[in-house]
Design goal:
The protein is mainly beta. Helices cover 3% and strands 44% of the residues. Strands 3-7-6-9-10-12 form a six-stranded mixed β-sheet, with no helix packed on it. The two termini are 31 Å apart.
Length: 287
Amino acid sequence: MRHRASLLSKVLGLCTTLGMTSCGEHVVVVELSNLATDATTVSAYYRIDSDSYRASVLQSGQFQVGSPMFGIRPPADRSGTMRVQVFGYKNNIPCELSLGETTVDVSSTGKLNAAAALTAGPPPPGCSANDTPVKYPSEAKVWAAAPNNVWIVGKNAAVLHWDGALFREVVLPSSVLSGKTPTWNAVHGDSQGNVWLAGDSDSVVRIDASGNATAIPTTLVAAFPYAMNYTGVHAEAGSVWFQPTPRRLPTVSSAITLPHQTSSRRRSLPSCQSQLSETRCMRSIAH
């Protein structure tokens, strides 16, 4: 059964000075200073008190020349302190050109002004990408299809996706993970838009191009009759290869078979020698 992976950061529209009338009467207007002149995208993460962060994106062309500012519509029934974190990026690359934050009390109504003085990110070839208020996976493994399609996975079942403007935490349903919180040891995508995650505790998951997550039964991945950790995955041309490591060493040699993703044909991989400390039964993973 397919399950929809959810995003922790909710996306809401911001309004700019080009269309500030669409913001309504109750609005937080954030004025930016020191925004990098070559920034093409401005991303904002914001929340009130301890709420979950919401996030949205503006293109630099939406700002008035010399007056970069945008508006955020707070919920009408909320009071408290809104924290806004702002990041400037160029050409979908997740390296911060500018970053800063501001806070404002939203208990009162009407137009509320706030100012965010931005600082510059590290100059090239340096790159800082982990200041946004999301949970970055520890012991991270990374796969990128393009500058605006980067997947980062790691411990505690953590999955993070960069879409060219925002980092978003992808939460896999407990039903897909069978109640486990695996460490993802590898991630790889294919030309069909699928992203494959391989981890410990017999954990293999596919996220399709629509964001649906599916647990792959390990009986389809390996013919071994004991628990496996998966330490590698590679996908191309409709086929997927996994690198298994037994959690308990086998006593006999065996082989891995894997169904072809576009037909019923099965592909056999070479036999694994049981006496090795790590079972390597897959084609070398391309980097």
